[in-house]
C-alpha cells in the first residue's frame, strides 16, 4: 500500500528496490539505473580490502619446472619462508594437520594405530599358506594340463 502511494506521488524519484518490486511494473531506464546505483553503494559500504593472501590448503599445488634450455636463473626461496611452511602444511595428511576429525567421513579410520601389537609368531592372527597332499596334487594337475 505504501509503495502504491509512493508511486502515485513521486513516480520518477523512487529508488527503493522494494517499491519497484511491489509494483510489479516493467522497470524503465531511470529505475534500472537507480537500482544499479543502490547496489553499488551497498557493495562499497560492505567491501573489505584483503591484503594478506594464503595458499588454498584443499588444493594440491603443482610446481612445474622451467624449460630445459631456458637461460633464466631459478628463483632462490629462503629456507624459513612462510610460503614453504604453508606449502608443507597443506600437503600433510589430515591426522597431522588437525587434532580432531573435521568431517563425518574422517571419523572412520582417524585412529589408525592397531589395538593389539602385531606378533608374527602368534598363530591365532597370522594364517600362513602351507601345502597339504591335496593342494600339491591339484597344483601338479593344473601345471600338467597347460
UniProtKB/TrEMBL annotation:
It is found in: Cell projection, Cilium; Cytoplasm, Cytoskeleton. Its main location: other. It comes from the Eukaryota. Belongs to the CFAP144 family. It comes from Dicentrarchus labrax (European seabass). Keywords: Cell projection, Cytoplasm, Cytoskeleton. The keyword Thylakoid does not apply. InterPro entries: CFAP144. This is Cilia and flagella associated protein 144. One of its GO terms (cellular component) is ciliary base.
Amino acid at each position: 500500500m505504501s509503495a502504491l502511494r509512493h508511486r502515485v506521488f513521486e513516480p520518477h524519484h523512487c529508488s527503493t528496490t522494494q517499491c519497484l518490486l511491489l509494483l510489479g511494473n516493467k522497470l524503465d531506464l531511470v529505475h534500472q539505473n537507480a537500482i544499479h546505483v543502490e547496489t553499488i553503494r551497498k557493495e562499497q559500504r560492505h567491501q573489505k580490502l584483503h591484503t594478506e593472501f594464503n595458499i588454498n590448503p584443499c588444493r594440491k599445488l603443482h610446481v612445474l619446472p622451467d624449460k630445459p634450455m631456458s637461460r633464466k636463473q631459478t628463483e632462490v626461496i629462503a629456507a624459513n619462508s612462510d610460503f614453504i611452511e604453508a606449502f608443507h602444511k597443506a600437503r600433510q595428511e589430515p591426522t597431522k594437520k588437525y587434532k580432531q576429525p573435521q568431517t563425518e567421513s574422517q571419523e572412520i579410520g582417524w585412529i589408525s594405530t592397531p589395538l593389539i601389537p602385531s606378533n608374527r609368531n602368534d598363530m591365532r592372527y597370522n594364517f600362513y599358506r602351507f601345502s597339504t597332499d591335496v593342494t600339491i596334487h591339484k597344483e601338479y594337475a593344473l601345471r600338467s594340463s597347460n
